[in-house]
Amino acid sequence: VFVAINKIDTPKSDPLTSDFYALGMEALYPLSAEHGAGVAELLDALYPLLPAATEGPTADIPKVAVVGRPNVGKSTFINTLLGEPRLVVSEEPGTTRDAIDTLVRYKKAEYLFIDTAGIRRRGRIDPGVEQYSVARAMRALGRADLAVLILDGVEGVTEQDTKIAGLALRGGRACVLLVNKWDLRADDPDAKAKYEAELRRRFAFLAWAPVLYGSALEFKTVAGVFPVINRVLKAFAHRVPTAQLNRIFQDAIAANPLPIRKWKPVKSAYITQVATKPPTFVLFCKHPEEVGAPYLRYLENYLREQFDFAGAPIRIFAKAK
Predict the structure, then answer these.
(1) Distance from first CA to last CA of the chain, Å, rounded?
(2) Which one, 238, 240, 308, 313, has the greatest CB density within 10 A?
(3) Same domain assignment for residues 180 and 196
(4) What are phi and psi of 125, to 5 degrees?
(5) H or E element at residue 44
(6) Selected residue with higher pLDDT from 127 and 292
(7) How far apart are CA 279 and CA 264, in angstroms?
């Protein structure tokens, strides 16, 4: 037991520590948490008693952030995955206050799952702990390879769901959609068709993301996520050889030529992949300013038809040769 006496901010406060010897402890550690005085002495005493550090997850282990609105089942998903109630689950939204890392082994593979605080609309975020929790959730999303966005199968897709998906997309994260609480709609034969139509309408910018339906309370739903995660992670890290890529590119511009500049088509263009995670391509041509967003979207869709980039965002930039 270490007795740390806080708010000993100045030498004039030192005599106040004498009262604490009544606790029967030989060593007392006066300190100021606000100014840092005395903290080093306390740490020097603690350090020899700490257990040896164990190696944490390596950079090679894929990191999966479980994100969504409050109370959609993120912590339930993790608990079902582990088979034990490691994370607090409550009907009260906002139970999870911090990003919690959980190392999971499934069929000889390892994954680092990150359970995050629910992200509400900015105007509804309370200052203080919740604001801090949301900031930590967004940072956790930034360090993940893939986001599992959990949606509420009963409430349907909301504007906040699309904004959270937009955060993952802007961060260049791979994405999988999991529609939770689907067991509560088992009696509605038209439920899936209606929900898919809603997804197409609200998530038009994320049409390439795989969609799963189930209940976070059921292990078969949770286990069914892993094959999809593996496929998406493979797509996220996929690199296309330059020669093969340019053969596909020539087919693409033959079907839909590059934009015309002053009645002359843009010629002598080629493309190369410059990065993975996410797959990033650069189109080199003489007048890149003439290649607008619609044509780049056409190229993205063409690449998706030729290669399995399911669940992975694709970035394409046009640059001068």
Answers:
(1) 68
(2) 313
(3) yes
(4) -80, 125
(5) helix 39-46
(6) 292
(7) 31
pLDDT band per the 50, 70, 90 thresholds, residue 55: low
Q: Which of 180, 204, 236 is the last residue of a domain?
A: 236
Contact call for residues 75 and 96 (beta carbons, < 8 A): yes
Non-local CB neighbours of 109 within 8 Å, separated by 6+ positions: 226, 230
Residue at 54 is within a domain: no
CA distance 210 to 306: 17
Q: What's the confidence (pLDDT) of residue 226?
A: 93
State how far the Cα of 160 lies from the Cα of 119, in Å rounded to an integer: 8
- Run of H or E residues at 280: strand 280-285
In this structure, are residues 182 and 215 in contact, taking their beta carbons and an 8 Å threshold?
yes
**Can you read off the two tokens belonging to residue 173?**
């994260």
Burial class (CB in 10 A: 0-12, 13-18, 19+), 258: buried
Cross-strand pairs, 213: 179
User: Residue 59 pLDDT more than 90?
Assistant: no
Phi-psi region of 263 (alpha: psi -120 to 50; beta: other; left: phi over 0): left
Tell me the whole-structure pTM to 2 decimals. Answer: 0.71
Pairing of the two strands 315-320 and 280-285:
parallel
Is 58 within the bounds of a domain?
Answer: no
Distance CA(189)–CA(169), nearest Å, equals 32
Give per-residue pLDDT as tens, 128-170. 333 444 455 567 777 889 999 999 999 989 888 888 888 889 8
